[in-house]
């Protein structure tokens, strides 16, 4: 069994760790570093529950090896709230009932947060396309789209 | 879900990667891991070592030649970068379409064009675009470099002409001004890959189709051009009759037994869909106004 030393920044904090090459990024985040925000749904790259940002881009952390992320900057859902205060997006997920069991929520939030950085005035159709890689088995998506739309409305292009 | 154990090496240049490949028997390259890792998880592949080229600099550029005749795209350009590139949209829209239709936003950030083409997954979208554009791969080995034409690339399911000890450094696409192209995808509802994907490229003078290239992915065991459709289009006036006649030839171009049959669609149904989607792909790119 081989091992590698890697160094990754997670939510602004530098971490050095030793992993087997086959360790998935999501497993390193959850099991080695305690960032349990990224969930493991399917482990096949379909459901998006494991979505994190790697160097500002959303990826599915079950379809990356931890060793591939050596030297990268990772952001997980734990990092998006401002000193513990919920962001508008998080508040709107609550307001609009954008979650039921909540399993998909961390991934949805990472995708939506990133999407709203690129498009601050999206149509509902664009929102649906943006969350294409995030499956939700509870809400039927309607309220999730509402939450993202309401966030865009509330922030009104000020991001 | 853990894969089998393997050794991991990160290359710091193309030469370094080639040396690592030759030093470690059975080693495989990894770029985005979006083709390889799913297959390692299911045990379909179990390389003893991976050579990571994902972080190499300078292999992700998208640029036009000085005289504007060729488009070069680095092997590490991601699907998202290609889908968002204004240059690709203008010069080779079939490739921009294929990249934009691939997977979902996260997958498009994760996977690379070089990895996609080297992987040889017959359900992939970019192969139909590369074939329709008559593009080629730039490939390097330890002692030489060569070019692989799109038509020679796809040899079988997960088999391509890229050798185990070679690296795809980029793709090259000839472009001309009076060409139109586009990609039409019918998604497999389960996997999101192409159940049928058709790439078309046409050069016209506004009235007559002077040159045509039409390619299929997803429906057949390897992505392929459809010469019977192309022959039927070339030299003909741009009319509904031309499109109908050409699309009707879509199935006959494909060898017996080459249509994929699985739980999603029988070979017969895929052949039927190919005819319909060829017709739609042609209507997508040409304007019939009479
Ligand atoms: C959930 C999900 C959905 C997807 N949906 C689609 C889809 O709808 N359509 C589609 O077309 N694809 C789809 N894909 C696959 C696509 O994302 C990948 O880009 C592609 O198959 C592989 O690219 P990669 O960079 O990840 O390559 P890797 O997985 O890193 O490598 C794939 C293979 O190519 C070799 N390789 C990689 N780079 C090079 C190189 N430069 N030179 C030589 N060999 C190389 C590797 O050794 C390996 O054998 C999907 C993937 C996932 C996980
Ligand atoms: S757990 Fe990563 S996509 Fe489902
Ligand atoms: S809230 Fe349960 S999966 Fe989305």
Automatic annotation (TrEMBL), chain A:
CDD domains: fer2
Highest rank taxon of the organism: Archaea
Family annotation (InterPro entries): 2Fe-2S-bd, 2Fe-2S-bd_dom_sf, 2Fe-2S_ferredoxin-like_sf, 2Fe-2S_ferredoxin-type, 2Fe2S_fd_BS, Beta-grasp_dom_sf, Diverse_Oxidoreductases
Keyword Metal-binding: yes
PROSITE patterns in UniProt: 2FE2S_FER_1, 2FE2S_FER_2
Keywords tagged on the record: 2Fe-2S, Iron, Iron-sulfur, Metal-binding, Oxidoreductase
Domain (2Fe-2S ferredoxin-type): residue spans on this chain: 4-80
Pfam families for this protein: Fer2, Fer2_2
Coiled-coil positions: none
GO molecular function terms noted in the UniProt entry: 2 iron, 2 sulfur cluster binding; glyceraldehyde oxidoreductase activity; metal ion binding
Annotated EC: 1.2.99.8
Enzyme class: oxidoreductase
Name of the protein this chain belongs to: Glyceraldehyde dehydrogenase small chain
Lineage: Archaea, Methanobacteriati, Methanobacteriota, Stenosarchaea group, Halobacteria
From TrEMBL, chain B:
Signal peptide: none
Matches recorded under InterPro entries: CO_DH_flav_C, CO_DH_flav_C_dom_sf, Diverse_Substr_Oxidored, FAD-bd_PCMH, FAD-bd_PCMH-like_sf, FAD-bd_PCMH_sub1, FAD-bd_PCMH_sub2, Mopterin_DH_FAD-bd
Domain FAD-binding PCMH-type: 1-178
Record keywords, A-Z: FAD, Flavoprotein, Oxidoreductase
Alphabetized PROSITE patterns for the sequence: FAD_PCMH (PS51387)
GO terms for MF: FAD binding; glyceraldehyde oxidoreductase activity
Gene3D superfamilies registered for this protein in UniProt: 3.30.465.10, CO dehydrogenase flavoprotein, C-terminal domain (3.30.390.50), Uridine Diphospho-n-acetylenolpyruvylglucosamine Reductase, domain 2 (3.30.43.10)
Pfam families: CO_deh_flav_C, FAD_binding_5
Key word Membrane present: no
E.C. code: 1.2.99.8
Keyword Flavoprotein in annotation: yes
PANTHER family: XANTHINE DEHYDROGENASE SUBUNIT C-RELATED (PTHR42659)
Protein name: Glyceraldehyde dehydrogenase medium chain
Native organism: Halalkalicoccus paucihalophilus
Species lineage: Archaea, Methanobacteriati, Methanobacteriota, Stenosarchaea group, Halobacteria
